[in-house]
Amino acid sequence: MGQFLLQVPKEIRETLPSSVWDSAHFCGVGGTPWQTQTEQDGNGLKLKIKIASSGKLQILWPVENLGTRLLSTCTLSPSETQSYQLAIELARGSCYRARTLAAEWERYGITPSDAFQEHLHEGTSCFLNALKLKHHPLNSAQQSMRAISHLEKALDLLAQDYSTRSIAQRKQRDPKLGTLLAGSVLPAITNLPASTTENIADAIPMRDCYLQTFNTAAVRFNWRDIEKTPGNFDFSKTISTISQFQEIGLRTIAGPLVDFEKELLPEWILQTDVNFDSLHHAAINYVERTINSLRGSVQLWNCLSGINNAGPVCLNDEQIMRLSLSILQTARGADPDTPAIISFDQPFGEYLRNNHAGVPALKFGETLVRCGLGLAGIGLDIKLGYASGGSMRRSAMDLSQHLDRWSGLGLPLLIQLSAPGDRTNDPLALRADPAGAMLGTAEQCSSSDLTASSQLELIEPILPMLLAKPYVHGIVWDGWTDDTQHFLPNSGLIDQHQSPRPLQKFFSRMRADHLA
Question: What pLDDT was estimated at residue 261?
Answer without folding.
Answer: 93
